[in-house]
From TrEMBL:
Residues 43-146 form the Beta-galactosidase jelly roll domain. InterPro entries: BetaGal_jelly_roll_dom, Galactose-bd-like_sf. The keyword Magnesium does not apply. One of its GO terms (molecular function) is beta-galactosidase activity. The lineage of its organism: Eukaryota, Rhodophyta, Stylonematophyceae, Stylonematales, Stylonemataceae. It holds the Pfam family BetaGal_ABD2. The keyword Hydrolase applies. Keywords: Glycosidase, Hydrolase. It comes from Rhodosorus marinus. This is Beta-galactosidase jelly roll domain-containing protein.
Length: 181
Protein backbone atom coordinates (compact mmCIF):
# COMPACT_ATOMS: atom_id res chain seq x y z
CA UNK A 1 0.00 0.00 0.00
CA UNK A 2 0.90 3.62 0.06
CA UNK A 3 3.31 4.44 2.91
CA UNK A 4 3.93 8.12 2.29
CA UNK A 5 3.28 10.83 -0.27
CA UNK A 6 4.24 14.44 -0.70
CA UNK A 7 2.33 17.09 -2.59
CA UNK A 8 3.62 20.34 -3.91
CA UNK A 9 1.72 23.32 -5.19
CA UNK A 10 2.61 26.07 -7.57
CA UNK A 11 3.58 29.42 -6.17
CA UNK A 12 0.89 31.02 -8.31
CA UNK A 13 -2.72 31.14 -7.11
CA UNK A 14 -5.10 29.55 -9.58
CA UNK A 15 -8.45 31.20 -10.24
CA UNK A 16 -11.38 29.15 -11.35
CA UNK A 17 -14.26 30.45 -13.38
CA UNK A 18 -17.51 29.21 -14.76
CA UNK A 19 -17.70 28.14 -18.39
CA UNK A 20 -20.96 28.76 -20.17
CA UNK A 21 -23.89 30.88 -19.11
CA UNK A 22 -24.55 31.52 -15.40
CA UNK A 23 -28.31 31.01 -15.22
CA UNK A 24 -28.67 33.08 -12.05
CA UNK A 25 -28.23 36.22 -14.16
CA UNK A 26 -30.89 35.34 -16.75
CA UNK A 27 -34.48 36.57 -16.90
CA UNK A 28 -35.66 33.18 -18.21
CA UNK A 29 -33.21 30.48 -17.06
CA UNK A 30 -35.29 27.68 -18.61
CA UNK A 31 -34.82 29.12 -22.12
CA UNK A 32 -31.08 28.44 -22.34
CA UNK A 33 -28.67 25.64 -23.18
CA UNK A 34 -25.65 27.11 -21.43
CA UNK A 35 -23.68 27.57 -24.66
CA UNK A 36 -21.50 30.68 -24.62
CA UNK A 37 -22.94 33.56 -26.68
CA UNK A 38 -26.11 31.59 -27.45
CA UNK A 39 -28.43 34.60 -27.00
CA UNK A 40 -26.42 36.55 -29.57
CA UNK A 41 -26.34 33.62 -32.00
CA UNK A 42 -30.07 32.89 -31.69
CA UNK A 43 -31.04 36.55 -32.11
CA UNK A 44 -28.61 37.30 -34.99
CA UNK A 45 -30.16 38.51 -38.21
CA UNK A 46 -30.61 36.22 -41.18
CA UNK A 47 -28.07 36.15 -43.99
CA UNK A 48 -30.21 37.04 -46.99
CA UNK A 49 -27.66 35.47 -49.37
CA UNK A 50 -28.42 32.00 -48.02
CA UNK A 51 -31.69 30.50 -49.21
CA UNK A 52 -34.23 29.19 -46.72
CA UNK A 53 -34.39 25.45 -46.21
CA UNK A 54 -37.41 23.83 -47.75
CA UNK A 55 -38.36 22.01 -44.57
CA UNK A 56 -41.96 21.46 -45.66
CA UNK A 57 -40.84 19.48 -48.72
CA UNK A 58 -43.03 16.47 -47.97
CA UNK A 59 -41.49 13.24 -46.77
CA UNK A 60 -37.90 13.91 -47.83
CA UNK A 61 -35.88 15.51 -45.01
CA UNK A 62 -33.21 18.18 -45.32
CA UNK A 63 -29.75 16.56 -45.06
CA UNK A 64 -26.65 18.26 -43.68
CA UNK A 65 -23.20 16.67 -43.85
CA UNK A 66 -21.66 17.47 -40.47
CA UNK A 67 -17.89 17.57 -39.95
CA UNK A 68 -16.34 17.06 -36.52
CA UNK A 69 -13.61 19.60 -37.27
CA UNK A 70 -16.22 22.38 -37.62
CA UNK A 71 -17.02 22.40 -33.88
CA UNK A 72 -20.29 24.09 -32.94
CA UNK A 73 -22.12 25.28 -36.03
CA UNK A 74 -24.96 27.78 -35.80
CA UNK A 75 -27.50 27.18 -38.54
CA UNK A 76 -30.57 29.27 -39.16
CA UNK A 77 -33.44 29.42 -41.56
CA UNK A 78 -36.84 30.94 -41.89
CA UNK A 79 -40.01 29.12 -42.82
CA UNK A 80 -43.56 30.06 -43.57
CA UNK A 81 -45.98 28.89 -40.89
CA UNK A 82 -48.85 26.78 -42.16
CA UNK A 83 -52.21 28.43 -42.76
CA UNK A 84 -54.37 27.29 -39.87
CA UNK A 85 -57.53 29.19 -40.75
CA UNK A 86 -59.49 25.95 -41.27
CA UNK A 87 -57.72 23.68 -38.73
CA UNK A 88 -55.26 24.07 -35.88
CA UNK A 89 -52.49 21.49 -35.59
CA UNK A 90 -49.09 21.31 -33.86
CA UNK A 91 -45.82 20.79 -35.71
CA UNK A 92 -43.03 18.25 -35.28
CA UNK A 93 -39.30 18.85 -35.67
CA UNK A 94 -37.48 15.57 -36.30
CA UNK A 95 -33.74 14.80 -36.26
CA UNK A 96 -32.05 11.62 -37.46
CA UNK A 97 -28.31 10.90 -37.30
CA UNK A 98 -25.99 7.89 -37.11
CA UNK A 99 -23.23 9.03 -34.77
CA UNK A 100 -22.46 11.33 -31.83
CA UNK A 101 -24.57 14.35 -32.78
CA UNK A 102 -25.93 17.03 -30.45
CA UNK A 103 -28.51 19.53 -31.71
CA UNK A 104 -30.07 22.38 -29.72
CA UNK A 105 -33.14 23.89 -31.41
CA UNK A 106 -34.93 27.22 -31.12
CA UNK A 107 -38.16 28.22 -32.87
CA UNK A 108 -38.84 31.97 -32.84
CA UNK A 109 -36.18 32.48 -30.10
CA UNK A 110 -37.75 29.83 -27.81
CA UNK A 111 -35.55 26.87 -26.89
CA UNK A 112 -37.66 23.80 -27.73
CA UNK A 113 -35.30 20.89 -27.19
CA UNK A 114 -31.96 19.12 -27.29
CA UNK A 115 -31.30 16.08 -29.47
CA UNK A 116 -28.56 13.80 -28.10
CA UNK A 117 -27.95 10.84 -30.41
CA UNK A 118 -26.03 8.80 -27.84
CA UNK A 119 -28.26 9.46 -24.81
CA UNK A 120 -31.84 8.69 -25.63
CA UNK A 121 -34.48 7.72 -28.08
CA UNK A 122 -36.11 11.14 -28.54
CA UNK A 123 -35.73 12.49 -32.04
CA UNK A 124 -39.21 14.02 -32.44
CA UNK A 125 -39.87 17.40 -30.85
CA UNK A 126 -43.39 18.74 -30.37
CA UNK A 127 -43.60 22.41 -31.28
CA UNK A 128 -46.22 23.81 -28.96
CA UNK A 129 -49.26 25.63 -30.27
CA UNK A 130 -48.71 29.36 -30.35
CA UNK A 131 -44.94 29.14 -30.89
CA UNK A 132 -45.24 29.08 -34.70
CA UNK A 133 -46.90 32.10 -36.27
CA UNK A 134 -49.67 30.96 -38.58
CA UNK A 135 -49.23 31.98 -42.22
CA UNK A 136 -46.22 34.18 -41.32
CA UNK A 137 -42.43 33.96 -41.35
CA UNK A 138 -40.87 32.02 -38.47
CA UNK A 139 -37.25 31.33 -37.51
CA UNK A 140 -35.53 28.03 -36.77
CA UNK A 141 -32.04 28.17 -35.24
CA UNK A 142 -29.91 25.09 -34.59
CA UNK A 143 -26.65 24.72 -32.67
CA UNK A 144 -25.13 21.54 -34.11
CA UNK A 145 -22.02 19.64 -33.03
CA UNK A 146 -20.63 16.18 -33.72
CA UNK A 147 -17.63 14.07 -32.73
CA UNK A 148 -17.61 12.13 -36.03
CA UNK A 149 -18.36 13.16 -39.60
CA UNK A 150 -21.97 12.16 -40.18
CA UNK A 151 -25.14 13.24 -41.99
CA UNK A 152 -27.98 14.85 -40.05
CA UNK A 153 -31.51 14.64 -41.43
CA UNK A 154 -34.00 17.34 -40.39
CA UNK A 155 -37.74 17.31 -41.05
CA UNK A 156 -40.35 19.89 -40.05
CA UNK A 157 -43.97 18.94 -40.58
CA UNK A 158 -47.27 18.20 -38.86
CA UNK A 159 -47.45 16.03 -35.75
CA UNK A 160 -48.76 12.76 -37.27
CA UNK A 161 -50.68 10.33 -35.05
CA UNK A 162 -52.15 6.86 -35.43
CA UNK A 163 -55.95 7.08 -35.58
CA UNK A 164 -56.47 4.14 -33.23
CA UNK A 165 -53.83 4.56 -30.52
CA UNK A 166 -53.14 8.30 -30.76
CA UNK A 167 -49.39 7.59 -30.75
CA UNK A 168 -46.94 9.32 -33.06
CA UNK A 169 -46.98 7.45 -36.36
CA UNK A 170 -45.26 7.95 -39.73
CA UNK A 171 -48.34 6.67 -41.59
CA UNK A 172 -51.11 8.36 -39.60
CA UNK A 173 -52.96 11.64 -39.98
CA UNK A 174 -52.12 15.12 -38.66
CA UNK A 175 -53.23 15.66 -35.07
CA UNK A 176 -55.97 18.32 -35.29
CA UNK A 177 -56.53 20.29 -32.09
CA UNK A 178 -59.81 21.87 -33.19
CA UNK A 179 -61.55 23.21 -36.21
CA UNK A 180 -61.16 26.96 -36.44
CA UNK A 181 -64.43 28.90 -36.19
Amino acid sequence: GLISASLSRSARNQRWGMYGVPVSSLNDPFNTTGLPLEREAVAASFDTDNPSWDLFAGESPMCLDLKAEDGIQWLRTSFQGPDQSAYRFPLRLKFEARDSVVVCAWVNDLFIGRYLYDFGPQNNFYIMEGVVKSDAENSLVLAVMTLKDTPLHITLGPWIVDGTSGNLSPSGKPFVLQKAL
